[in-house]
Write a structure and sequence with these properties.
Largest sheet: 5 strands, mixed
Shape: globular
Helix content: 40-55%
CATH architecture of one domain: 2-Layer Sandwich
Strand content: 15-25%
Order of helices and strands: EEEHEHEHEEEHHHHHEHHEH
Number of strands: 10
Mean pLDDT: 90
Length: about 300
């Protein structure tokens, strides 16, 4: 019996799945492991912890593992991939493959087939593959200049929207959304909120997103619907680039990431906007778990096909 690890390393959490030749045995979750966002020390600890916890839960030791595949944001860059490979190699003794988060998500959604995956987690990107293996992407330019619809974008846009509302209303600071943001950042006024938002180093805007998801405030609803529309726009771009209208009647589209998983309003806005932009889109309603794709790629690299 051979054992395989699939790891999905993100800016919020790291999930490790253990599987044998055909089954998923268990998963374990640790902290963030996106090196760019959290640094090498935390990334190393999160990767180690997720692997060790998953192995213990599966009743194996790291030396039993035959192959590992890690998918992570930005991890496909050769320099970062080498660092991640070395980090995981401190815990396991088998070959370790490192690919981008969009590759494991696409694999989880469509196996080796065609389709478009839209990721909305700490960051965001749309990535697709046609039936000939050609790929294309849209978005994913990072939190400082892009990643529209992501958790970071939602948090930042919520702060911006609350502050802009204060320009025309003296009651903006009394809204339920404003109070939730105040509490999370430990501030008591709109001016303090603005100062915190503009601090250096920048604050963790993504950490505000759960409060926006949970809020029934009108501004929160507007932010979430806009997020869905932004994500639909990048999905439509990838569809247009990969699937000529004269040759493809239907294009499968899947969603993954914490924003889609936890914000029904974003999913609804995404679906409605994408269907309006691209009538061929067939949106899979179940949110995909990328770690399943990482595990599948580990098995395939280890010679076990799927």
């Amino acid at each position: 019996m051979s054992y395989y690890l699939g790891i999905d390393g993100g800016g919020t959490k790291t999930t490790c799945a253990v599987g044998d030749d055909s089954r998923l045995l268990t998963t374990a979750t640790a902290g963030a492991s996106n090196i760019v966002r959290v640094g090498e020390t935390q990334a190393r600890e999160s990767l180690r912890k997720s692997v060790m916890q998953a192995c213990v839960a599966a009743g194996i030791v790291p030396s039993d593992v035959s192959r590992v595949c890690v998918g992570g944001s930005g991890a496909a860059h050769p320099e970062l991939a080498a660092v991640v490979r070395s980090m995981v190699g401190e815990t396991v003794s088998c070959p370790v493959d490192v690919v981008g988060d969009m590759e494991v998500a696409l694999e989880a959604a469509f196996d080796t087939g065609p389709g478009v995956i839209v990721i909305a987690g700490t960051g965001s990107i749309a990535y697709g593959r046609d039936d000939r293996g050609k790929t294309a992407r849209a978005g994913g330019f990072g939190f400082a200049i892009g990643d529209e619809g992501s958790a970071h974008w939602i948090g930042r846009t919520a702060v911006n929207s609350v502050l802009r509302a204060s320009d025309s209303s003296d009651d903006a600071g009394e809204s339920s959304l404003a109070k939730a943001l105040f509490k999370l950042w430990g501030v008591t006024s709109l001016m303090d909120l603005a100062r915190a938002a503009n601090s250096i180093p920048p604050p963790d805007f993504a950490a505000l997103s759960p409060a926006v998801f949970a809020s029934e405030d009108v501004i929160a609803g507007e932010v979430l619907r806009r997020a869905g529309r932004e994500l639909a726009n990048i999905a439509a771009v990838v569809i247009e680039r990969l699937f000529p209208r004269e040759s493809v009647d239907a294009v499968p589209v899947a969603m993954t990431g914490g924003v889609f998983r936890h914000a029904a309003m974003v999913r609804e806005a995404f679906y409605n906007e994408l269907c309006a932009l691209e009538s061929r889109a067939q949106v899979i309603t179940q949110v995909v778990d990328p770690v399943e794709g990482a595990l599948r790629l580990a098995r395939r690299a280890g010679g076990m096909g799927k």
